[in-house]
Structures are given as structure tokens and as C-alpha cells.
Amino acid sequence: MDVGILGPLAARVAGLPVTPTATKPRKVLAVLAAHADQVVPVDAFVDELWGDAAPRSATTTLQTYVMQLRGLIGAASARAGQPRDPKRVLVTRPGGYLLVTGELDLREFERRAEAGHRAARAGDVAGAAEHFRAALARWRGDPLVDVRVGAVLAAHVRRLTEARLSVLDRRVDADLRLGRHHEVLAELTGLVARHGTHENLSAHLMVALYRAGRRGDAAHEYQRLRACLVDELGLDPSPALRGLHRRVLAADPLLLTPEPVRLDRAG
């Protein structure tokens, strides 16, 4: 089964869609997809589907949802002329279930992101930017955006969202080191609007503005971030960001030269 969770939930068997429309079978598939090729304990499904209000029939009802998913898998493979035992795709294991996946957007995202990190460590900035960009291209929107998530999936969504933001931060960093400040300005403006206390993104925007000849706007971005940090978190900007602000005010010519801009703390 080919599965996508980096956006709306998507599942295909032999090229045909098998994503259920009913809420709870959809959540079961999402849990399986989020833990692809791993055994998911029955308790995790129960927590996701019912939380603290699980009925006595929870395990039996879960089995019904699994049967429905297997029915979709079997019907799709038969229509495609590639009949396959659905129990070999959605596998029963002691204490839980396992989904055997083919293509998985999360796996490809993680593979390309790791390639980007390796390239960055080796000093290949252009290669790092390319890999990070390819990793981010796997995203189709917010993770599992069309699934009504419970406790189990909510934690997974938070982790995925942070992973995406981290790779985005590294890709922008690489682009700035390659002198692409004009190309990333509009994107950074939107990112900072959505992640108002993220220090790395704010630093990237300050540098991009400065290199674009907009020193006043760069200084204003620092003041905006400082106000957000104080109001929302009760924090002051990090020493590194304060140092960057001083360099902007002093019109430091070295800031015009592409170089790494990394801060120790991101809010």
C-alpha cells in the first residue's frame, strides 16, 4: 500500500484509492500509516479512537474497522487485476496490527532530509539546499489535515510539524549562504507571520532584508520579534539575536557576505 500522511491522508493499492471516508476507520488507517511497517498495539488504537471513554466492545469494534479496511484493500487490488490477500497488507500480529507499505511520503521526506544534513556537514551547501528542497516537496499541506486526530495522532502531528519546520529552517539557511536572499524574502515574510517567535526564521529574515538594502526593515523585524517573545513567552531575544541586531544597526559590511546564520535558541 502506498501511503501519504504529509498532508491529507491518502492511501492507494495498485494505484487505486482506498482511503475510507468514515471517521473511525479513517483514524485507524492514519494510526497505521503514522507507524508504517511497525506493530501498533491495540491499546494505541483504543486511545486514539475513544480516549478515556472506550466502550467494553472497543477491541471487537476495532476488529470490525480492520475488516473494513481489508475489504477496501482486497476490492482495489481485484479491480486493478492484481489480486492480493489483504491480510498480507494489513497484518494481524500478537497484540496489534501492522501496515505493510510501499511508497511512503514520510519515509522519502526523512531520507532526503538526512541527505541534506550529510551534505551540509560535508560543506556542500548547494547539495544541502537541493536535498532539503526535495524533502519539503513531499509535503502536500499540514500533516493529516483531514483526520480528526486524537491523543496518539496529535503527538505524531506535532512531531511531523516540528520536523518540517526544522528542515525548512535549514533549507533557508543554505539558500542565504548561497546568496539567494532576494528569492527567499517573500517566503520568509510569510513564515515569520505564522511562526512569530521562531528566532532562526526571524534572524534569516533580518539578514535577507539587510542584504536586500532594507536595513530599517531588518531592525524593525528584531523589534517585532522582541515584542512577541516578551508578550507570549516572557523571554528576551537570545544573545546571538541581540548581536545580529547590533550588527544591523552598525551597518556591518560583513553581513552582506553570505555566511551561516544559526542561533542557539528558537522560540
From TrEMBL:
Which part of the chain engages DNA, per the record?
A: 1-101
Q: Which Gene3D superfamilies match?
A: Tetratricopeptide repeat domain, Winged helix-like DNA-binding domain superfamily/Winged helix DNA-binding domain
**CDD domains for this protein:** BTAD (cd15831)
InterPro entries associated with the record: AfsR-DnrI-RedD_regulator, BTAD, OmpR/PhoB-type_DNA-bd, Sig_transdc_resp-reg_C-effctor, TPR-like_helical_dom_sf, WH-like_DNA-bd_sf
MF GO annotations: DNA binding
Q: Which residues form the OmpR/PhoB-type domain?
A: 1-101
Q: Which UniProt keywords apply?
A: DNA-binding, Transcription, Transcription regulation
* Biological process, per Gene Ontology: phosphorelay signal transduction system; regulation of DNA-templated transcription
PROSITE patterns xrefs: OMPR_PHOB
Q: Which family does it belong to?
A: Belongs to the AfsR/DnrI/RedD regulatory family.
Spell out the PANTHER family in the cross-references: TRANSCRIPTIONAL REGULATOR REDD (PTHR35807:SF1), TRANSCRIPTIONAL REGULATOR REDD-RELATED (PTHR35807)
* Name used for this protein in its record: DNA-binding SARP family transcriptional activator
Originating species? Actinokineospora auranticolor
The record lists the lineage as: Bacteria, Bacillati, Actinomycetota, Actinomycetes, Pseudonocardiales
